[in-house]
């Protein structure tokens, strides 16, 4: 069983970024969707990313952005991975010459299987809760039982995770990675650094149970 990775999303300042890295985060997420309370301007994200050490992935989150807007971000921000949360097609996601993950707002098991078929070039699928009209980041949990057992190793589990339930999620699903934002915040876009540390410790603790 490979180690479950941890992504801390919704990073808006260097203090939270470096604290998450020190706690053991494998990836940091930067939200470029302007309607999100965790939006970070490209100029600010560039300054934060410049301080992130090697071997920590910097992930840019987009929602149905115009192609030019994505390229403008990529021209100034050091991103290793892209995350698409809208209705983007596979051809759209592939055009930026970066590995990408595709978010799926889960309603049914078939929805997950369909997404796997529609986005064969995606590195992973990120599974989040479905809330009508909201592309993600709601903090709501979905039914983990909808995740096909044979696909668990491929998914990044998101949606309603926090330090109190992530060990259960890791033990039950055994996903490739977990992704958290609101579950470790003290305010929208501001992390509770103690909660980040506890979240990552709980992921590690759960893996010792396998």
UniProtKB/TrEMBL annotation:
Catalysed transformations (reactions): N-(5-phospho-beta-D-ribosyl)anthranilate = 1-(2-carboxyphenylamino)-1-deoxy-D-ribulose 5-phosphate
Name of the protein this chain belongs to: N-(5'-phosphoribosyl)anthranilate isomerase
GO terms of biological process kind: L-tryptophan biosynthetic process
Entry coiled-coil feature ranges: none
Keywords annotated in UniProt: Amino-acid biosynthesis, Aromatic amino acid biosynthesis, Isomerase, Tryptophan biosynthesis
Domain N-(5'phosphoribosyl) anthranilate isomerase (PRAI): 6-201
Gene: trpF
PANTHER family: N-(5'-PHOSPHORIBOSYL)ANTHRANILATE ISOMERASE
């Amino acid at each position: 069983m490979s180690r479950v990775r941890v992504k801390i999303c919704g990073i808006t300042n260097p203090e939270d970024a470096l604290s998450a890295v020190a706690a053991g985060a494998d990836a940091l997420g930067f939200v470029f969707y302007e309607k999100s309370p965790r939006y970070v301007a490209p100029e600010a994200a560039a300054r934060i990313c410049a301080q992130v050490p090697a071997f920590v992935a910097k992930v840019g989150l987009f929602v149905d952005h115009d192609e030019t807007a994505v390229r403008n971000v990529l021209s100034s921000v050091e991103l290793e991975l892209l995350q698409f949360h809208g209705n983007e097609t596979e051809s759209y996601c592939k055009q930026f010459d970066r590995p990408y993950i595709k978010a799926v707002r889960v309603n049914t098991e078939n929805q997950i299987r369909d997404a796997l078929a529609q986005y064969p070039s995606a590195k992973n699928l990120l599974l989040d809760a479905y809330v009508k009209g909201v592309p993600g980041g709601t903090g709501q949990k979905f039914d983990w039982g909808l995740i096909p057992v044979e696909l668990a190793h491929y998914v990044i589990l998101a949606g309603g995770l926090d330090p109190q339930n992530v060990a259960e999620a890791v033990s039950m699903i055994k996903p490739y990675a977990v992704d958290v934002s609101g579950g470790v915040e003290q305010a929208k876009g501001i992390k509770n650094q103690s909660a980040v540390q506890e979240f990552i410790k709980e992921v590690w603790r759960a893996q010792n149970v396998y």
